[in-house]
Amino acid sequence: MSHRRSLRFSKTTCPICGSKEVARDDNKGDLLCTNCGHIIVRTETRAVGKFDIAQHLKRSGKMNFAGLQQVTGASEDKLFGVIRNMQDMGLLSEIQGQYSLTKKGQRWYRQRLGQEWGY
Ligand SMILES: [Zn+2]
Fold first, then answer.
1. How many Å lie between the centroid of ligand 1 and the Cα of residue 84?
2. In this structure, are 79 and 108 located in the same domain?
3. How far is the CA of 43 from the centre of ligand 1 (A)?
4. Distance from the CA of 13 to the center of ligand 1, in angstroms?
5. pTM higher than 0.70 for the full model?
């Protein structure tokens, strides 16, 4: 399976080398510096929250990217950003395209749930 990458130049300046030749990777929504290769992960991902994703995974057990996109209504790049963030935090694991909560993720979810309910 090969992904065709479509790159489009963005207005961002690379924080590493200062180059203005930063392209947007439409598959992932990340920005890639074409000069030094640094990947700038976009951080403005507010439309879908980690808690939302955790909640859906808790209910369903495992879900693929398309399924999560459907239930959260998030755009692909935003959802990708949040999922990546959760993976970095160790809350999510992905096996063959199926996302699920790790033990840490389940603890995190219960803590957040407790906060929501005020105990
Ligand atoms: Zn650079």
1. 21
2. yes
3. 18
4. 8
5. no
H or E stretch covering 98: strand 98-101
3-state secondary structure of 87: helix
Count the residues in the chain: 119
Beta bridge pairs of residue 46: none
> Quick check: is 92 in a domain?
yes
Q: What is the pLDDT along the chain (119 residues), one digit of tens a residue?
A: 445 555 677 777 888 899 988 888 766 667 888 999 988 776 554 457 899 899 999 999 999 999 998 888 888 888 999 999 999 999 999 999 999 999 999 999 999 888 766 65
Residue 24 lies in a domain: yes
Residue type, 16: I
The CATH number for 88's domain is: 1.10.10.10
Distance between CA atoms of residues 22 and 37, nearest Å: 9
78 CA → ligand 1 middle, Å: 23
Place of tokens 């991902």: 45
Interval between CA 86 and ligand 1 midpoint (Å): 25
